[in-house]
Automatic annotation (TrEMBL), chain A:
InterPro entries: ATP-dep_Glu-Cys_Ligase-2, DUF403. Residues 1-310 form the DUF403 domain. It comes from the Bacteria. It holds the Pfam family Alpha-E. This is DUF403 domain-containing protein.
TrEMBL record, chain B:
This is Circularly permuted type 2 ATP-grasp protein. SUPFAM superfamilies: Glutathione synthetase ATP-binding domain-like. PANTHER family: BLR5612 PROTEIN, SLL1039 PROTEIN. Residues 74-451 form the Circularly permuted ATP-grasp type domain.
Amino acid sequence: MLGRTANGIFWMFRYLERSENMARLLEAGLRMALTRDIVSSEDEWRSVIAAAGQRQAFEAQHATYTGVQAWNFILRDKANPMSILSMFELVRTNARLARNAISGELWEAINDNWMQISDLLAKPVGQSDVAEAVTVIKRAGTLAHGAMVGSMLRDHAYHFARAGTMVERADAIVRILDIKYYLLLPALSYVGSSLDTSQWDQVLRSVSGDRAYRSLNAGQIDARGIVEFLVLDDRFPRSLAFCHSALREELAALARLHGGEGQANRMMREADIRLSNQSIEDIFDKGLHEFLLDFSATNAAIGQAISNDYRFLA
Amino acid sequence: MDGPDEQFDEMHGPAGSVREAYTDYEQWYSQQDAHFLNRKHKDAEHSFRRTGITFNVYGEEAAEERLIPFDMVPRIITAAEWRRLTRGIEQRVRALNAFMYDLYHRQEIVRSGRLPQRLLQQNDAWLPNMVGFTPPGGVYTHIVGIDLVRTGPDEFYVLEDNARTPSGVSYMLENRETMMQMFPELFMQVGVEPVSNYPRRLATSLAACAPKMTEGRPTVAVLTPGIYNSAYYEHAFLADQMGAELVEGSDLRVIDGRVAMRTTRGYEAVDVIYRRVDDEFLDPLTFNPDSVLGVPGIMDVYRSGGITIANAPGTGVADDKAIYSFMPDIVEFYTGEKPLLPNVETWRCADEEDCKYVLDNLADLVVKEVHGSGGYGMLIGPTATKKEIEEFRKKLQENPHGYIAQPTLSLSTCPIFTDAGLAPRHVDLRPFVLVSPDTVDITPGGLTRVALEEGSLVVNSSQGGGTKDTWVLKD
């Protein structure tokens, strides 16, 4: 496979994952805003924009936070290079670029959804349509992954696609945890105390983990438990442990296909050892923020190593 | 019989009779209800959008992608008609290839006085670098798309020889796929020659032209200018269908006398390049130094036998319309036979007498630039305004060498599906021809382009033309 094509597939799936995560974040925000009065819903949208990492860009345009402004900014604003619309366009551009390495079914899933999403987001999205938009975007990801799993050879393209997905997903989990950290746990003494449960609920919802978490914890919610779930529980597909174990498998498969390990495999092994040797107590003792910073840096470095190992760029 | 001035329609003969080619189709069509057909008509567009069969129009926003309109009434050719056509096409393509060889070697045709030397000197597509060099297998024109027009039952003419980089084959294939999806029962009732094996035939034909130093199975790659090129869809489609790599210039470099592509495991040699990049961008060291689409040094590798480039650089000479006007002589010179497929009568404005005639009859003629293509820069006398004609007259007088003229042919029509039922529109036909050292392979079918406006003769997709599925009936 060409390095450039591998790069296209890797980023196609990173952007797909990113747009999906953004949609989940928006969904969680919408739900919270519904349960608030106007003033605190402004706080809520500020925190959604912050979690999306778009605070600066948003505030350059808007003095206050309203729901309509916030979701249109995230969904479709031209001034926002990371809007879902721009990202989905990147998904499709990369899919076109790698057109001869992905299955026809996957391509059609992407192209079909792109047509639907660009239609939906052609005009400003009002209150009554925003939920529908979120649903369509999330379903786009589901369809693409389904088409891939059901139709693609377990070959280079498949493994690069999965690797891109996992690198991006881990990045998103780190971001949401880090941004909500101070809200969740303003001080260590808060651990175990009854905080604003709706904040925690939002974190879980933004990774579609609310149901899974509740079923594991008999409906009880506590901060330490949520962090442990999202960092260390490798049964949940949107936990850091799951992402890294999946990424390790994809990188091992790529190494087998290429007849040898690269820098990314070595880094992955080290990261694995570090993560599996830690308990949630260790993480809190050392500081969750520091842990997340470190994890995020390693994750980014592995992404870079994949690009170098497999000659993504000339 | 049709009278000489009668418009020839592919489906209907005089007094509404149905021609042989369309007997079975008409029987099916007459049983369909209008509502069903209307629904299918709309489905077709959606299906093309989904598959992503789009093209970009030059000069418009890069992101803009358009569909070439598809009409669901097939253009049908009988087995007997097709046999006659293929004999003529094969003869013409063999002559073209021999002509290319001769032009870049002894130039017997010029020595014999059949072709003026100046046509080569003035031809932008002429490549001195190719002189004295023979491409692997002696093949210059690996893929040719001969544009044919029809004016009567047995009157087919060659309008253009696309020997450089004919495009549109993906439409031939996708149009058929779409038709089979929409009307499966139709294909049970009518025996139609398949076209779906074209990519396999192309892969076989290209592999047969691999250079001698190829080890094992030849590695074939399609070289595209990139995703913003108007025909990118086709490049990706063909690479996908052939199981070949789709490469850009930046993926390739010359290593140890071979052209190699950057794969995830390192650089690997390429044996055959099906390039969809024009000559002048192919090698910045040899041609346009600013080109980022090509591969520095590829021409050296080519000349030393390290790679096959399809089509060979320099074949664009034959696409020149001044050369076209000599094709009947060219065919005779290299095959010793009379051309089976005639040219459209052509006046060369470079000749004083011809030029005078053209200037006197501008309102009745079609005047084309000799280097032009895609329906741009031409004058269609009968539909042009007085002002347009006068402006064109000036351009022609300033540079008579730059133009040729042809009569306004009454191109055959074929029905298209409209809200008001079937309506005749003008069509042409581009069959696709594959050339390898031993064979000339013509896929039974081709691309039928159709002018969607009533009375219009311009079928080019860049100017609002559409396409049809093209059927060759089984015997």
